[in-house]
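Figure 6 in text form: structure in, sequence out.
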């Protein structure tokens, strides 16, 4: 196949990208999007600050724009993200205790209900574990409402949209380390107690300080062995030329080697679309031309 999406589909996978609603009117951007990708993740439009800017008042305009674009171009949608310590609206940042817990539950219910039937997988909870060797939860306002906030979010999402796969998503969990061990233990615990979880997302933001781990595939596999799907959810790799191309190849191959790795999403289309302040971490250059990393990724699929 001659596109990322079609080649991934031949392998029973998808190939996706983060999408920003305000860029859909850029024809170079949407041209690449609609040619190459068959899964989209709204980059910011489904986050708490965007969807519930004031408490109880929901705003779906730009997220709906991405959803309708996707639906008319045979692209599925990864919802991102229902409960997260970051990009919360100011009113939620100022809540705590029962008020925050209730607000979180209502938010999950409302947003998952609004998109019921339209979402392939939700990142129900994003980035809830701490970095470093401690293997603990991240300290956040949500965590301070009680350690059960994650399972409550998952049960709430399941009740609202039983057809969506429900994922836990994080970064620096791509290899085996204290943080990924802690996520692993949580998934194992959820599975043993019947807390609904279907998938684990590995953001996979890589650079020279945080390279593709040598045990990347083994780590994906050990999660898959717990009975969840795994996905690469926000892939970008700093670098250029053949080194970058080789890193993208390795990541793609790792996913293909794990039967429950159901797809790969890159975090933007052109280098100029990247959230990273500098660098060239994506598959297309600023003019929308295919890079060596594109060619190696397509060849690996
Ligand atoms: C980033 C977006 O790309 C930026 O536009 C925004 O300013 C900040 O968030 N982990 C995540 C994503 O789960 O939601 C983040 O996206 C990147 C890190």
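Output sequence:
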């Amino acid at each position: 196949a001659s596109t990322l999406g079609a080649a991934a589909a031949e392998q029973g996978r998808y190939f996706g990208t983060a999408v920003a609603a305000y860029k859909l009117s850029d024809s170079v951007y949407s041209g690449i999007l609609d040619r190459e990708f068959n899964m989209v993740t709204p980059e910011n439009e489904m986050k708490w600050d965007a969807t519930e800017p004031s408490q109880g008042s929901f705003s779906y305009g730009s997220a709906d724009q991405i959803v309708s674009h996707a639906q008319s171009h045979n692209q599925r949608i990864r919802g991102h993200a229902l409960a997260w310590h970051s990009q919360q609206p100011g009113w939620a940042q100022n809540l705590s205790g029962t008020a925050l817990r209730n607000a979180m539950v209502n938010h999950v219910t409302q947003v998952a209900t609004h998109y019921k039937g339209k979402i392939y997988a939700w990142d129900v909870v994003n980035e809830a574990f701490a970095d470093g060797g401690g293997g603990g939860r991240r300290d956040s306002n949500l965590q301070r409402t009680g350690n059960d906030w994650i399972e409550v979010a998952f049960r709430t999402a399941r009740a609202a949209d039983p057809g969506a796969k429900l994922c836990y998503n994080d970064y620096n969990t791509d290899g085996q380390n204290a943080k990924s061990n802690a996520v692993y233990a949580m998934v194992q615990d959820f599975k043993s107690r019947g807390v609904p979880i279907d998938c684990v997302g590995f953001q996979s933001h890589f650079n020279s300080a945080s390279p593709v781990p040598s045990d990347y595939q083994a780590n994906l596999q050990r999660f898959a062995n717990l009975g969840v799907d795994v996905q690469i959810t926000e892939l970008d790799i700093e670098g250029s030329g053949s080194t970058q191309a080789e890193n993208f190849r390795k990541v793609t191959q790792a996913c293909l080697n794990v039967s429950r790795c159901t797809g790969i999403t890159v975090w933007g289309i052109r280098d100029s679309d990247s959230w990273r302040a500098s660098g060239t971490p994506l598959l297309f250059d600023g003019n929308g031309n295919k890079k060596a990393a594109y060619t190696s990724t397509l060849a690996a699929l």
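Caption detail: The first helix runs from residue 4 to 10.
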